Amino acid sequence: MISARRIITILGTLFCAGGTGFFMQHYMQAPDRSAPGSIQVASVNAIQDVVPLVEQALAAPAEEEEVQLEDIALTAAIPVPPSAAPQPEMLPDNPVTLAALEDEPITDLPQEEPAPSFGCEIDFKAQPVAAAMVKLTLNAPCLGNERFTLHHNGMMFADATDAEGRAEISVPALNKAAIFIATFTSGDSAVADAEVGTLEYYDRAVVQWNGPEGLQIHALEYEAGYEGDGHVWAGAARDLASAAKGEGGFITRLGDAEAFNPMMAEIYTFPSGTALKEGTIAINLEAEVTEDNCNTDIEAQILQKSGADRMAAKELVLAMPECDAVGDYLVLKNLFDDLNIARN
How many of the other CB atoms lie within 10 Å of CB of 102? Predict the structure, then answer.
């Protein structure tokens, strides 16, 4: 491609050649104007001499001039998207109508999957034994060393299972159709029952309370004095063999005094229907003043069963002395009815 500079050079050359011819034609003529041919020849020759030079200049390749760039400063420009950039498609003029499926009535609701449970299976059995007692066997393998409360016909006390979740207790029956309920603090519970046919031959006196040791039943059989042979209490409790033989009564103490929130019960049993001799049995309640119960109120319940089904109940609130009386005893009489034993 012919550069602009080269074109200017060629045009300048043509201009100079034309001007030279013009000059020679008008100002370089001889004095004799009758010989015009010589002037024309000189003009024509001058132009003819220039034409080859122009043609040579046009035919010769132009030398490329090297341009030196210095001190170039770069500038930033905001990019302009091309005019042919993709444009968002326009929505149709007609609005889009959403079609809903036909409603179908729900006939069967989905069933929720039952959550896996890890309940504790408790085996609780009751077996009647001698002297209208019931042997309770509790087996709860997943409730080892757990406190439970035992309920029976108004009597209530708290005990605990061993490390294997077992407990064996002999409980005096208070009803011929004896029902026993064991409830745990976890909410688990179990029920056991037994038929106690010999209950009608035994009378029973019960005291129960919340708290550690403190209350005691003292039975004075056949007008015996304290520390005598007929004085039956926790320190001289006897056992069910004496009652089974008709010789006298015995004491049963229930509950764990070391358990959390202890609930205790003490029961005196006398074989009124099989006694070997007649007489009177006086039953007193004593409260020992201890460091645990001094200067407090003891709430207790009194239960007494006579014959097969008759049961009496009393509420008791006992105000204990100040703590400087620790070691003393309060003797409460007339809380229980005396037993009058007639010879059979």
Answer: 4
